[in-house]
Prior knowledge:
Number of domains: 1
Strand content: 5-15%
Largest sheet: 4 strands, mixed
Strand order of the largest sheet: 1-2-3-9
CATH architecture: Orthogonal Bundle
Shape: globular
Number of helices: 18
Distance between the termini: 61 Å
CATH class: Mainly Alpha
Radius of gyration: 21 Å
Helix content: 40-55%
Amino acid sequence: MSDLPVLNTSDPAYARDPYALLAPIAESGPVARVVLDGLPVWLVTGYDEAVFVMSSPQLSNDGIKNAGAAARSVFWTGAADRGLQSHMGRLDPPDHTRLRALVQQTFTPRRVAALEPWIRQVARDLIAKFPSGGDHEVDLMAAYAFPLPITVIAELLGIDPAERPDFRHWADTYLHADERHVELAAEAGRRVGELLAGLVAQRRANLGDAPLDISHEGTLVDGLIRARDEGDALDEPELLSLLFLLLGAGYETTVNLIGNGTLMLLSDPERLAALCKDPALLPAAVEEFLRLDPPVKAVFPRYPLVDVELGGVLIQAGEPVVVHFSAVSRDERRYSDPTVYRPGRGADRSEPSHLTFGYGLHHCLGAPLARLEGRVAFDELLRAYPEIELAAPVEELRWEHSRLFRGVSALPVRLGPPAV
């Protein structure tokens, strides 16, 4: 174990530039044995191997049932505690299949697409609060990248504005806690559970005897309470864990998409000018933001149900396997010049789509919403302030220490003159 490469979430170098630490690991092969935050894992850095891990029935998402002893002994895998982690992202078929079918009834592409005018208004309202005058500096994370996705997911869930700070605080605490803060994480999990239970109770009371019509206007909570499949419905623990998944994953990834994407644009004036000139390029740009600097570094481990050979190594049943999107998105075997920003990659199918939203059965249900929010956020910002620029050197930016997510804590920008 002492000879294995070590990756620590608390290491400032790993937070600032995981790519530099991942490159030599990826060069050794698409699957490598490393120590991640104290736990020996098989780290997947190859694209094809990542697709296999995320789609093969030979590997399980359910650590409670299938993790080995080493993974169960480490806090961050979640393999020893169901709680709020019992959502469908941590389950296998048939449990996963059942829950996903219920969720899909209310989280439909049509409903997401219909949200665009409202999301644009939320973005415009936030931009309207920026200080007037071209020389003003703004922390774009605090003023825009954070509040936009939080407002969207909170409104969709029906969370009262007065309670949103508490939801965000305790959810962030729970998601980012490490072995040094086990008791704090437990308290955060309890508090989030209480807040969600209160939300569900309130929505149930408001629904009363309303018909079980999932197309009815209302919050996502209303839709999930109403959802039925041949008489089956979400029980209370399932509903609470699912709402936690929507709350946590529903804003953190989009926050970092907006922050990381803006940083990429402002680091190169030509990129910024191209999108200001032609906003129709935004969808392709968003996909390249997601590939080149994914808002999610890695997800929770998967566990082989049997011994599996992958990438030239033999992985024993129960050993944790972690797909690292930061490395997978730059696999030289699948992408030409993978460190180069090139919107429209794969338009001719010469290169594959990125895997930032997962693959197969566990492909993120919220991907259309995240893409929509990102596209709208960039569009409204660049229309309002086409001469926006960084107000601090890139090397001075502070990156969040997180096992799961990649993003800056603050992004100081100089707005420049507003567009006419």
